[in-house]
Amino acid sequence: RRGAMCREEVCVNRRLAPDLYLGTVGVLRLADGSAALDADDEDFDVVEPAVLMRRFDERDTLAARVAAQRATPAQLRDVGARLAAFHAEEACAEQTEAAFDALRSAIRATLDDLEAAGAAVAAAPGVATALRGTLEAVLRARRAELLERGRRGLVVDGHGDLRAEHVLLTDPVQVVDAVEFDPALRLGDVACDLGFLVMDLEGRGAGDLAEALVAGYRDAGGDPGDDALLAAMACYRALVRARVDVVRAGQGDPGAAAAAAARLEQAVRFAWRARGPQLLAVCGAPAIGKSTLARALCAQSDMVRISSDRVRKTRAGLPPDAPVPATAYAPDETLAVYRELGEHAAAAMATGRGAVIDATLGDPGAREALRSGLGRAASALRYVECCVPAPEARRRAAAREHGSDGESDASADTAARLAASWSALDETPADRHLIVRSDRPVAKVTADVSAWLDRALRPRPGTSASRH
């Protein structure tokens, strides 16, 4: 069985590294008790079958080049082109449904293990529970698309373990260590194979190289789907790596818990991207936690926070922590601020990152000005309305007068006046308006927002434009 696995390893890996995998050999026991290498043949007394490889320079691995800051976007475009050509040769359309079922089962098993992690990595169970809803929602929304992609030849017998240490930036590009022991681990949509390397590069702080990789893949004719699909696969791959680190942490590896936590944070960021660009207006009266929630949402994701207080001060030519004159709150100026908020948010949406608008938005005219500035992006707008009991709102407003958050100038009197004049978002469709109690731990509030967005995911067409 060992010999068969060695022969399979050579066969599988010659596809991407034909010059390195020379064949199989046997470690022989000679008559004098010494050892030698010879053909892996049943006629010899083979003690141990082995794979014979040509040695490569570890400094040529993508991992080493990234660490030394010697990897370039042009090289990663070449890697993307090589992987696109490889995937084009390995289509397995007849296994499309099996591949989808295997992916769903693998995601569930990975999350089950992370939820059971216990004390090994404290964050693992909570993150796994939250991401289960996201990934299940993504798979439901994109099932028909994934099956259609498989029928188009985009389910392949891939590499299965595309990490930076396995990619050689040689001429030509070669990739080693494909999974040989279980063919099912290589089977899947090309986005799942490519998403592994995207995840690994971003985890190494090389997001620009990940973008070059995907651009090179697409330019060579590969189709990894839109950015949201690729992010969903990268999220799953990050969870797989986190599970490995959790096991190591449970075995006493001193650095494994921190590594697992970093992978889990990365998985959460990818999960936000897997939903597609989001446009959220976090609104409500002053001093009830809008900015805290907006910052937390942006910290979990790639979204841009756009603050009405910051825009107002920029328009007045003031630094963020300076008080603004009363004229900055004049009705016409306020409407101009909200239109500019919309323009900034539309620009963020155009990059594919999404945006969180941090503003009171208690007046219908202000909301209309915001939508005017958003233009066509207004169709994506969702409102997250923060609320707290009135006594708590008064306490927070009074406390902030003695320790401002640096942006808002709202006094306790201003907060009370704006709360009293609040106009309900009656013009907003119910499915685009979420009310949250923001006097709870912010992690619980962000979890509520995430679950709400997951419930809103709908089946989508087979392909869509990408920002790469």
Record the SSE blueprint:
Elements: H1 2-13, E1 21-29, E2 35-39, E3 46-53, H2 62-67, H3 73-88, H4 96-115, H5 124-154, E4 155-157, E5 167-168, E6 174-175, E7 187-189, H6 190-203, H7 207-219, H8 227-250, H9 256-274, E8 279-283, H10 290-300, E9 304-307, H11 308-315, H12 331-350, E10 355-358, H13 364-374, E11 381-387, H14 390-401, H15 412-420, E12 433-437, H16 442-455
Parallel strand pairs: 8-10, 8-11, 9-10, 11-12
Antiparallel strand pairs: 1-2, 1-3, 4-7, 5-6
Helix pairs in contact: 3-7, 4-5, 4-8, 5-8, 5-9, 5-16, 6-7, 6-8, 8-9, 10-16, 11-12, 12-13, 14-15
Tell me about this structure:
The protein has 16 helices and 12 strands. It has helices spanning 2-13, 62-67, 73-88, 96-115, 124-154, 190-203, 207-219, 227-250, 256-274, 290-300, 308-315, 331-350, 364-374, 390-401, 412-420, 442-455, and strands at residues 21-29, 35-39, 46-53, 155-157, 167-168, 174-175, 187-189, 279-283, 304-307, 355-358, 381-387, 433-437. The longest helix has 31 residues, at 124-154.
Tell me the distance between the termini.
45 Å
Mean pLDDT: 91
- Rg over CA atoms, rounded to whole Å, is 27 Å
For the biggest β-sheet, the strand order reads 9-10-8-11-12
Q: What is the beta-strand fraction?
A: 5-15%
Largest sheet: number of strands, sense, barrel closure: 5 strands, parallel
Q: What letter string, H or E per element, gives the SSE order?
A: HEEEHHHHEEEEHHHHEHEHHEHEHHEH
What is the tally of helical segments? 16
Oligomer: single chain
User: Strand tally, please?
Assistant: 12
**What is the 3D form?**
elongated
How much helicity do the residues have? 40-55%
The chain-level structural class is: alpha/beta
Low-confidence stretches: 462-468
